[in-house]
Structure formats: structure tokens, C-alpha cells
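# step 3/5: fold
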Amino acid sequence: MAGLPDLPLAGIRLLDLTTVLFGPITTQLMGDLGADVIKIEAPGGDATRHVGPSRSPGMGALFMGANRNKRSIELDLKRPEAKAALWRLIDRADVFVHNIRPQKIRALGFDPDAVMARNPRIVYGGLHGYGEDGPYGGRPAYDDVIQGQSGLAGTFTARDGEPTLVPSTIADKTAALVAMGGLLAALVRRERTGRGGYVECSMFEALVGYNLLEHHYGAMFQPPLSGYGYPRMLSAQRRPHRTRDGHICMLAYTDRQWRSFWRLAGRPELAADERFATMRERSRNIDALYEAAGAILSGRTTAEWLEILGAAEIPCGPVNGFEDVRADPHLNAIGFFRPYDHPSEGPLEIPDAPWRFDRGSLPVRVAQPALGEHGHAILREAGCSEAEIERLLNAAEGDPSP
């Protein structure tokens, strides 16, 4: 089934052999853009089907968050008949994506060389924990491990003296965005050349690059001009500032914005303070800068500061909890929280996709699927006979008959 004709990836068929979050987020984003995503699940399905509240078995909240705009088929790829069915799907596919460890996908017979030999136009995505050519290649990896190993948890050590984890699956989500970009680039190249290709994206490398973007800092130069770490990010004073009744995040950034802030705060003499006069000097005196700003911000309420700073076009915002985000007037005005009536799970609320095309939101074309929900239709499209379909799907459900 193709997407709506005006969606960017309409007509692209993607075989999705991913589980947990890194891979499923990647493929969900491509499904949002119109790709026909076929989620190929092992017996029992994606582990996230059983994580979080649910109305039905196998439809847990974590799975629901990362698997819209997909169809599901259950295949036991240890069985020859299931492998044969997957090869038929590969013949008709544009993209093949997995996050199985390299040695295991090779043992199954679906390594990059084999798949691209069968279908030279296919874009093959290997989403790994670590680059397969290095000494870590083939190791298992999850978000917590990569946050630590990539240096992300260590940024808290540099600032606070103690490592901690970001309370979000940030490694999975960041690597998914990187992976999607690589897959889309490979599809663009295929449109120009007619040739597919192998795209590898690894969580470890993606997060190290993400981290060092600013924290490579002076160590980028050879010989180094300074140590690692962008001082503004690592300042202990860089945090939500207390107001009279709560907190606010404020980032005056340019020279003009800081001059305006000191004037509005009734401290015009600080605009002439040589420590704060230029961006270079503010960077060198970042702790003192934030400490002075924080002391000023504590003198008024959050609402007062939002009004004053907003009128002066100084970037600022409240510190929201989850419930505050849900009540945010901007998000509600643009319809970001979308009601959706799931055919089996009932009324849902889903966040909007991250893009709008031609000023419109992208549709939910396919509800989050039950395990194997679309197996018959997918196998018919692959050219399987009804007898073959019954044997395959019964085997996936646990029938040991050949």
C-alpha cells in the first residue's frame, strides 16, 4: 500500500526489521512521510509491545509511541518458508532496515551483500550499537549504555562532579534522526543513479558526534588551543533561574540583547562592565554573568519577566512540566495534540509529526498495528498462494507443522 500521492515518500516500500526504539523511531518518521512501512516481527513481537499501560495485550504505550504508520507481519526467520517469503518482499522493496547485530543478520542470510545482490536498487540500512568494523562491533547497546559511553553522562561530571543520565531516551531518538537522514540521502542518490547502497548508522558514533559538536571546543585544533568542553554549557550557573514565584529560562545572547536586559533590570552599569561587554568576554566570565542575571531574575515573578523580556525580544520561556506542556497555548492553537480514534485501542491523543508540508500536518494513514495484523495482505502482495500464507502464519503463531 502506497502513501497518499502528495506525501514525499509515497510509493516507497520499507521493510522494517527493527525493535525497541532506535530503529522503530527511524522507520516511523519515514512512515509519517508516506512510506509503506512493513514491520516484520519475530514470534512474540517487538519487546516494547509489553512496556507501559495498555488497553489490549501487546499494545503497550511505548510501542504505540513509535509504531504508527506501519503494517505488521509476524515471521519466524529461523524457518526456511519465512526466509523465502522475506526474499519475495525484498524483491519488491525500496528500503530494508534492521537493528540486528551484524553477526546475527549474517547468520540469518540477510546481510548487506546478500540483500543488495538480490535487489541492486535497494537501500539497505544497518542500525547498529557500534560501527561494525571496530573492536566494539557486534556488541549489544541500549540508550543508558550509549549515554555513558559517548560522554553525554560525563558532561554532568564536568559540570557537577557526578555523572547522570538525561531522563529521556535521547540516544535512541538522536540516532534515529541521524539514521533517517542517511536513508533519505541514499534514496536521493538512487533516484539519480539507479543504484541502491548500504547505509550504516551506529548509536555510539552518532552520539559521540552529537556530543563533540560543541564540546570538542579548543581540542579540535592541533595542537589544542584549550581543553574539551564548551564553557557556557558546563557552567554550574547555567540552569533555570529562580523567580519570585517559580523558574524561568532566559538566554540573552547578542550584545544588543544583553544591553537591553541590563537596562530593563535597572542595572545599566553592568552593560559597561568589561566582563560582560562582548560575547568573547561573556564566554570567559560565564559563571559571573549567569550569577548576576540569576540574582536579578529572582526579584520578579515569572509572568512579569515573560512579559518584560518578551516585549524586548529577549528569548525566554517558562519551565514546564509534562502537564504544562499539554496545556501550552501555542501547541493547542496549532492543534499539536491530535485526537485519534484507533480501531482497536479506542480514543488516543498523539503528538503531531515534526514536519508540516504545504502548511498541513502529515496524516496517520495506518494505526499502530496489532502483532501480525496485516500478514495476509502483505504476503498476497508478495505473490504467495493462500496455502503458503496459511502455512507461514500458522507457523508464526506456534504451529510446528512444516
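# step 4/5: annotate
The chain is about 40% helix and 15% strand.
# step 5/5: archive (pending)
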